[in-house]
Write a structure and sequence with these properties.
The chain has one helix and five strands. By secondary structure, it is mainly beta. It has a five-stranded antiparallel sheet. The radius of gyration is 13 Å and the shape is globular. The relative contact order is 0.25.
Length: 97
């Protein structure tokens, strides 16, 4: 994948292979529910819809907004609201909290 006007390349965000047993499916992610990555971070899904895309030219419109409740490490601050695709969130989550 190449870098095209606002689209991240795989060099910037490499794909991490994972099995379905380690992560949730996108259909399991629901508004009002809390999820964890199993490493101390907890996020609550607070909204869904195409208006939560991370960029205007993003193809995947199945997006959510979440509230960061707990954080083990990384750039997200506790209490912050963040937008992400439902699939990417499902890849992060290992179970409902």
């Amino acid at each position: 994948m190449s870098r095209i006007k606002g689209v991240a390349s795989e060099r910037m965000f490499p794909r991490i292979p994972c099995s379905d047993a380690e992560h949730m499916r996108r259909n399991d992610i629901k508004v009002g529910h809390k999820y964890t990555n199993g490493k101390g971070a907890i996020r609550e899904v607070i909204a869904e819809g195409p208006e939560f895309r991370t960029s205007f030219d993003q193809e995947d419109s199945d997006c959510i907004q979440y509230l960061q409740l707990e954080q083990n490490r990384g750039p997200n601050r506790i209490g912050g609201k963040y937008n992400i695709t439902r699939q990417r969130f499902a890849n992060w989550a290992v179970r409902e909290e």
